[in-house]
Write the structure tokens for this entry.
Amino acid sequence: MAAELRERGIGFTSLHENLNNTTPGGRLVFHVFAALAEFIRELIVIGTKEGLAAARARGRFGGRPSVATAEIICAARDLLPDPGRSITSIAKLLGVPLGTLYNHIPDLRELRAGAVPPLQLEAPAR
């Protein structure tokens, strides 16, 4: 952006830092500041990625916990073939966001059309 402004004959003067990019010395300091800012930003990105990788190695994952339990998905799969219920009403009935159904039921459209038999949930072993 600074180069584009310079090509258009527009200068930049910072009153607080006494920095004037219309002079060679001012441009040098301006570019050094920009390089330092870019360097610090890259260090932050690297640190963030390393932190996330370390957390994943410890079994931690980011984001909100999913509200979709196996029982909710099974109930949704049972209700989807019913033409009297909309997908939105099924989501409201089960207390989950609409996107949750789309994200956790890959064959939702086929179930809606009645082309896929509902999935049976096995009872947990005691």
